[in-house]
Specification:
By secondary structure, the chain is α/β, with parallel strands linked by helices. It is built from 16 helices and twelve strands. 46% of the residues lie in helices and 15% in strands. It has a seven-stranded mixed sheet. The protein has a five-stranded mixed sheet with strand order 1-2-4-3-5, sandwiched between helices.
Length: 457
């Protein structure tokens, strides 16, 4: 990859996967998989296009649109669309690369991809965002389809934007098909889809807690620090509370909200936060309100990790690289026993190295880390279930979808665990490496499918 321009986010994701494969016995047992890694690191296709649209003043605006169709060995490309000014090929390649192996871990028939545009929805009117979505889909529709590539939402793309893009796709193609997931509930969307990533994250960690405690513990009584305040963070918080835990933090791009009383963040407060997000307001408004200012402190420009006094579980759920090496050390000092990524690549490599070092040194008393490609796979899993419902022209109940989600997250955890035990030697009392298990299990499944189909040999 030395002949390519620098792509720091993608290079980080590639090195994180490659290093765990190299430090396991996978290449000893399957030396041919080294070639598979070289092939799998290159996207099958990258599409870049111009998006022109008209603002409310009648002025023509131009943005860059992208779709990285990374790997289709296991099924149609599947992954979100992100509308954010920071979107570039490095970020989309990192997200698409991670998505390939995350989707493999769900056990569903999905390949991996990612896309979006460097369009910033903030400060735009609803009419401007709608116009952008229609213009974006006029080009993207040429490259996607129910059996080719099925995008979903991501940062800046809510069910509202999915609706506008689906309408544009339907008009261009003159057919209704399950080409986008995250659709409205009364026209093809799946129940539990908005909740799925947050719920799935908590279900995964619940298995970690039960395994580590020999079945004696759960979220009951645990203090849980969460970053972010969007969809993933909100529903993770609600599920933690439902299971008996206390949520002690949330955050946004401007700072961290820390609970100062024993009750922590309540369901009513999560609903208040959700309303703020819809109105595109900051968490600082909550901390300054007369109703809540005695119960919380808002620390501007900070993330929550070093400001929570005691923590049992940490769930980074905002964006990539939001837990640094120093913050990882602080979480360990504060007594954190479990950390799982609700965001993609939420921890820096330095933080992961700290967690893995302590896992080996302190064994059963250590912090136990779960990577996003396993822990936050619930969202894309229910997207896959939405695809199945669309194909059958059926709609499952909330209970049916939630039960399937629980089963997928259980299978995902057990797959990571057993694969780590098989390929990464551990000493007595040491937790298996879930990051290695997730990487090896996801990669091996994709590599085997690619070999069967002649992508490498």
């Amino acid at each position: 990859m030395s002949n390519l321009p620098s792509e720091p986010e993608f290079e980080q994701a590639y090195k994180e996967l490659a290093s765990t494969l190299e430090n396991s016995t996978l290449f000893e047992k399957h030396p041919e998989y080294k070639k598979a890694l070289q092939v799998a690191a290159i996207p099958e296709r990258i599409i870049q296009f111009r998006v022109t649209w008209e603002n409310d003043k009648g002025e023509v605006q131009a943005n860059r649109g992208f779709r990285v169709q990374y790997n289709s060995a296991l099924g149609p490309y599947k992954g979100g669309l992100r509308f954010h000014p920071t979107v570039n090929l490095s970020i989309l390649k990192f997200l698409g690369f991670e998505q390939v192996f995350k989707n493999a871990l769900t056990g569903l028939s999905m390949g991996g991809g990612k896309g979006g545009a460097d369009f910033d929805p903030k400060g735009k009117s609803d009419n401007e965002i709608r116009k952008f979505c229609v213009s974006f889909m006029r080009e993207l529709n040429k490259h996607i389809g129910a059996d080719t590539d099925v995008p979903a939402g991501d940062i800046g793309v809510s069910p509202r934007e999915i609706g506008w893009m689906f309408g544009a796709y339907r008009a261009e193609k003159n057919k209704w098909e399950g080409v986008l997931t995250g659709k409205g509930g009364n026209w093809g969307g799946s129940l539990i889809r908005p909740e799925a990533t947050g719920y799935g994250l908590v279900y995964y960690v619940q298995h970690m807690i039960q395994y580590a405690s020999g079945g004696k513990e759960s979220f009951q009584g645990k203090r849980v620090a969460i970053s972010g305040s969007g969809n993933v963070a909100q529903y993770a918080a609600l599920k933690v509370i439902e299971l008996g835990g206390t949520v002690i933090s949330l955050s946004d791009s401007k700072g961290a909200l820390i609970a100062t009383d024993e009750k922590g963040i309540t369901p009513d407060l999560v609903n208040f936060v959700a309303d703020l997000k819809v109105k595109r307001k900051q968490l600082s408004e909550l901390a300054e309100s007369s109703e809540y200012k005695q119960k919380f402190k808002y620390i501007e420009g900070e993330r929550p990790w070093v400001h929570v006094e005691k923590v049992d579980v940490a769930l980074p759920s905002a964006t990539q690289n939001e837990v640094s090496g120093d913050e990882g050390k602080k979480l360990i000092e504060l007594g954190c026993k479990f950390i799982a990524e609700g965001s993609n690549m939420g921890c820096t490599q330095e933080a992961i190295d700290e967690f893995e070092k302590v896992r080996k040194e302190k064994k059963g008393e250590a912090i136990w880390y779960a990577p996003g490609k396993a822990a936050n796979a619930g969202g894309v899993a229910v997207s896959g279930l939405e695809m199945a419902q669309n194909s059958q022209r059926l709609k499952w109940t909330s209970e049916e979808v939630d039960d399937k989600l629980k089963g997928i997250m259980k299978q995902c955890f057990e797959n990571c665990l057993s694969t780590a035990k098989e390929y990464v030697p551990t000493s007595d009392g040491e937790f298996p490496s879930l990051v290695a298990g997730g990487n090896i299990a996801g990669f091996s499944k994709v590599a085997a499918a690619m070999k069967d189909q002649g992508d490498w040999w």
